[in-house]
Amino acid sequence: MSVVCVNSCGWLLDSCSLIDEGLQRCVSYCDGLDKPTHFRCCFKREYFNTVRPHVQIQQNTDISTSTAKHSNGEHAKIDLQTRKKRKRKRRDLNTGELDANIYHGKIRLVVLEGSLALLEAGRQCGYLTEVLTTPPSESMPSHECRLAALCDMAKQLPLTDESLMAPVQTLNRDGLDPSVDLFSNITENPFDCAYEVTLMKEKYLLPPRSRFLLSDITRMHPLVNSGDKFDLIVLDPPWENKSVKRSNRYSSLPSSQLKQLPVPALAAPDCLVVTWVTNRAKHLRFIKEELYPFWAVEVLAEWLWVKVTRTGEFVFPLDSPHKKPYEVLVLGRHRSGTDHTVRSPAAEELPEQRLLISIPSVLHSQKPSLSAVLKPYISPEPKCLELFARSLQCDWTSWGNEVIKFQHSSYFTRERAEEPSTTSQTAIKQ
């Protein structure tokens, strides 16, 4: 049930189920036994248990004065509730705030009206409810991710020849060799089942047919030298903003450095390039006017990820002057050469606007997978790449300095599963 429902406005997604795809057959040799352990995994549902909006609200406040019409002409209301206002000094808005207000004015009705039918369909099928469908596990993990720090330490290692074809290290029957170099080589799980492996003394789950490179922006040559050209490239850059600086949750990257990313070298002809962007008008303008033209990517669409609670309310008031309940995705195609008429075989034309609605994770910067919604707009059997990834996906290559962060075993519940048939076991051992 990864796509709960779909209409001409967009999709209502179950992000947790999207993560679980591919984890119904897992294998582990981490227990020190001669025989592998077989089990299935699910991402812990507690991380997608946002029941109430993230702000204090006024009682009896109903912004249902903003109404929209269903196709049958009846008025329907979305309960949007406002933050209690404190008296503050009035001040003039700066340029960024003015730009943000102008953008919000343009897309406000798209979010409001487009959400109605999708949220109503989610309620009708029982997906949007306060009650978790599975009981919570014993505790939320407090795993401390040290991957970015390890990437910094790896910079002290000697550089390999960047002109050489980069090797790919693959899992074998017993998982990975403990001496593998995760920082200079692409690591791959070639099997049709997920593997639990021990990396740097921690246990991680690698989905079927997933590949990853753990490095920062200065050491991407193994990815470039792999010889792969990708039909879809998704980026989730660590944008600079005041909140990140204050919280020190992760290191950010100046916009200008994004131009160093070797997107043109990694893109197949007519590659679909998708970038997550914060609601700062400065960042959106940078992508559309500088970054995409620099990469020879033609801007074609802007989609919106709308974040809602389990009851179908926006996580922030739609008209909040601070945080908005949506984020933007900028989509375009890499145009190699001068022929802009080339289209991917069997790919549909990209719509200019769509909504992706989902319950967000409480884990910082964990985005929903785009694989299901982008499938019609790329070629069959595509090669897909995620840059600045923090998790892995089946049949995708992922890169980042925290690329396996959310694959840590502590984020998953597991239950024993029946051992596969002899034929399946033989396939795993090969």
Question: How is the secondary structure organized here?
Answer:
Layout: E1 3-7, E2 10-13, H1 15-20, E3 26-28, E4 37-43, E5 67-69, E6 75-77, H2 95-124, H3 147-154, E7 168-170, E8 186-189, E9 194-199, E10 202-206, E11 210-214, H4 221-224, E12 230-235, H5 242-247, H6 263-266, E13 267-277, H7 281-294, E14 297-307, E15 326-334, E16 355-358, H8 371-374, E17 384-387, E18 396-400, E19 412-416, H9 422-429
Parallel strand pairs: 2-16, 3-9, 7-8, 11-18, 12-13, 12-17, 14-16, 17-18
Antiparallel strand pairs: 1-2, 3-4, 4-19, 5-6, 8-11, 9-10, 13-15, 14-15
* Cα radius of gyration in angstroms: 22 Å
Q: What is the H level of CATH, i.e. the homologous superfamily?
A: Vaccinia Virus protein VP39
Q: What count of helical segments does DSSP give?
A: 9
Total individual domains: 1
Portion of residues within helices: 10-25%
Report the CATH topology name: Rossmann fold
Protein name: Methyltransferase-like protein 4
Pfam family, one: MT-A70
GO molecular function: nucleic acid binding; RNA methyltransferase activity; site-specific DNA-methyltransferase (adenine-specific) activity
InterPro entries: DNA_methylase_N6_adenine_CS (IPR002052), MT-A70-like (IPR007757)
Note down, in words, how this protein is organized.
This protein is α/β, with parallel strands linked by helices and 430 residues long. The protein has one domain: 3-Layer(aba) Sandwich (Rossmann fold), CATH 3.40.50. 20% of the residues lie in helices and 24% in strands. It has nine helices and 19 strands. Strands 1-2-16-14-15-13-12-17-18-11-8-7 form a twelve-stranded mixed sheet. It has a five-stranded mixed sheet with strand order 10-9-3-4-19. The chain has a two-stranded antiparallel ribbon with strand order 5-6.
